[in-house]
Amino acid sequence: MVEKTKNKETPIEESVPEMTDAESNEMMNKILNAFKEASSEVPREEVSAPLGVPHDLRGKEAECLDKIARLQAEFDNSRKRMEKEKQEIMLNANANLISEILPTLDHFELALKHNKDPGVKMIYDELKETLGKFGLKVIKTDGVFNPNIHEVVIKVEGNEDGAILEELQKGYLINDKLLRASKVKISKVTEKK
Fold first, then answer.
1. Rounded to an integer, what distance in angstroms lies between the CA atom of residue 153 and that of residue 182?
2. Does residue 131 belong to any structural domain of this protein?
3. SS3 187
């Protein structure tokens, strides 16, 4: 829209406020309720007879209401799908960032094995706590080897097959999905001939 003032054209901007998901859902529900109320207020028999509306238009009203209901369902499904995709993108972004931070976490653990500095320990604990808030969990390596979460680096002869003897590098889960497998040393029973 352009307004002329003293031979100058100055544009008048019409701003449309952005709506949140909740506001757009509320607006869609209001529209649907208005359509439903309008259709329920006038009995179907009165629609064609008094107004002189042909009989075939009553079917069009039902068809329009059906289309509106389908559009609302499609809109709801689309909104739910977009919300799910948004959450997955956030989780993947967090997983990528955290996987880049894991070597630093490993270096902290190595430093703490050789140096018991309380300041380093405090920073390490704070970093672990922060990463834990974003879903990072340490994979437990006590027990039996699980190929879904453990990676065998060394096999040695032993009394029990598949027992984890030592953890060489910690493994992590993020939101119950594998981020990095634990690198372990396991025992393997060899058959005597």
1. 10
2. no
3. strand
Task: Collapse the DSSP code of 5 into the 3-class scheme (helix H, G, I; strand E, B; otherwise coil) and give the result.
Answer: strand
Reduce the DSSP state of residue 67 to 3 states and report it.
helix
Mapping DSSP to helix (H, G, I), strand (E, B) and coil, where does residue 167 land?
strand
61 within a domain of the structure (yes/no): yes
* pTM, entire model: 0.56
Contacts of 176 (CB under 8 A, 6+ apart): 135, 137
Identify whether the C-beta of residue 143 lies closer than 8 Å to the C-beta of residue 164: yes
CATH of the domain at 144: 2.30.22.10
Q: How many domains does the chain divide into?
A: 2
Are both 25 and 91 inside the same structural domain?
A: yes
What is the tens place of the pLDDT at every residue in 135-189? Answer: 899 999 888 899 999 999 999 998 888 889 999 999 999 988 999 999 999 998 8
Range of the domain at 82: 21-98
